[in-house]
Predict the structure.
Amino acid sequence: MIITFQSPASGDVIMFGDVAQRMMKIMGKEASDKGIVTVEQLPDAIARLKAAIEEDKRRRAGLQEEDLPRTEPDHSGHAQSSRPYVTLTQRAVPLLELLEWSLKKQKPVVWGV
């Protein structure tokens, strides 16, 4: 499944469903097929994503490239050979930028609509 985060303030951010649901939970939203981050909720969602990005960077600090996983783990924690590893920071930054533009322009962010 693919989830597209949309706002009139910026371009769309497209993610695999499992990744999008993880981002929703980080933002304090229910992981669902349809949803909204209202203008009033944007500051909290932005703060939560920024905190998760900083935590991800702290966890990876000092690690060498060869220490990072090569593939994404599946839901059971086993490596998936079909999807290369991508850090939480790499996945969250485009969404963070969408949220920040949306806050600046006072527009909500929606998905599944």
The helical segments are 17-26, 42-60, 88-104. The first helix runs from residue 17 to 26. The mean pLDDT is 88. DSSP finds three helices and six strands in the chain.
